[in-house]
Inverse folding.
């Protein structure tokens, strides 16, 4: 007799718990939503598209709340910056959606969005990778966007974590821009929020991550509510995923306290670049009919998630062991 938990086989429940753990680690560490992993995984397992998207959004909301609480406990959230970015994004998402509808009428939406998405992932990924590989003496060579933003002196001026003082209107404008891209590309904006706060507002990496996680709770809650109203959220699946991510998000958030900021940027860049190749492969598969490219896409995105989450745990354990050894009293 096959053992069942939550109406699913025990093996499937364990699979979702383990998957939730991996995504939770990445979510807590990078501040990026996990729907880009959950939705395709549910589609591969045969769930209807509407249920896959709805369950993915519900999972992202739950994990975001868990992660945001942990980052709050660590003092890694800038509430003022989060509120302003969310305000700008709310308007921007509507503009982005309208742009997509215009392109759709012209029959260009699919190719334009795919190219823009891949291009943005590559640009942000390469810039973050370049920055992570520079030594402290080379930091002056990096484009200092935060200094440029500080030169725009349109009152009122606001000071954020990290000491950067930026105009209220510039901050809202940046939120608007991220919202437009989010609405246009159909993404939560996590991979844009973290680097924007890091380079644009000069906040520390761990605060950029914590603030990004908090902001994801807003669109996540709305998306989950809308799909739940349509009966498109599979509660047993979401519950199993959240069981794993509850631990994973706390591990990921705690890891930001242990791992060097440049290493965080390096891991983030690796995820973005792997994502760009995966999206490009999937698009080429649809255009050429080569099924192997779709397989490459899935292997890349899930393989990168497993490898990067493993690297985060390994680096954290290594730092903790180093602290333990250095803290021992000498026996000589």
């Amino acid at each position: 007799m096959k053992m069942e938990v939550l109406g699913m086989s025990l093996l499937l429940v364990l699979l979702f718990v383990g998957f939730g753990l991996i995504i939770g680690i990445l979510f807590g560490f990078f501040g990026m939503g996990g729907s880009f992993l959950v939705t395709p995984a549910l589609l591969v397992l045969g769930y209807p598209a509407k249920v896959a998207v709805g369950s993915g959004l519900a999972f992202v909301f739950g994990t975001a709340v868990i992660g945001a609480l942990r980052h709050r406990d660590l003092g890694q959230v800038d509430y003022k910056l989060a509120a302003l970015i969310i305000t700008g994004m709310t308007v921007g998402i509507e503009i982005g959606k309208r742009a997509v509808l215009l392109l759709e009428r012209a029959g260009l939406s699919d190719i334009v969005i795919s190219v823009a998405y891949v291009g943005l992932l590559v640009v942000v990924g390469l810039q973050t990778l370049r920055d992570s590989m520079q030594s402290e003496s080379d930091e002056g060579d990096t484009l200092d966007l935060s200094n440029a933003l500080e030169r725009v002196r349109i009152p009122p001026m606001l000071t954020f974590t990290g000491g950067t003082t930026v105009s209220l209107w510039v901050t809202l404008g940046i939120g608007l821009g991220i919202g437009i891209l989010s609405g246009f590309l159909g993404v939560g904006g996590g991979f844009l929020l973290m680097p924007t706060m890091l380079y644009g507002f000069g906040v520390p990496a761990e605060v950029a991550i914590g603030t990004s996680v908090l902001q994801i709770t807003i669109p996540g809650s709305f998306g989950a509510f809308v799909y739940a109203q349509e009966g498109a959220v599979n509660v047993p699946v979401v519950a199993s995923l959240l069981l794993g991510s509850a631990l994973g998000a706390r591990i990921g958030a705690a890891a930001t306290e242990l791992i060097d900021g440049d290493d965080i940027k390096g891991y983030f860049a690796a995820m973005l670049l792997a994502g760009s190749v995966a999206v490009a492969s999937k698009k080429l598969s649809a255009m050429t009919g080569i099924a192997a490219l779709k397989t490459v896409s899935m292997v890349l995105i899930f393989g990168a998630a497993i490898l990067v989450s493993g690297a985060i745990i390994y680096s954290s354990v290594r730092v903790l062991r180093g602290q333990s050894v250095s803290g021992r009293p000498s026996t000589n």
Observations:
- The radius of gyration is 20 Å.
- The chain has one domain: 4-318.
- The longest strand covers residues 157-159.
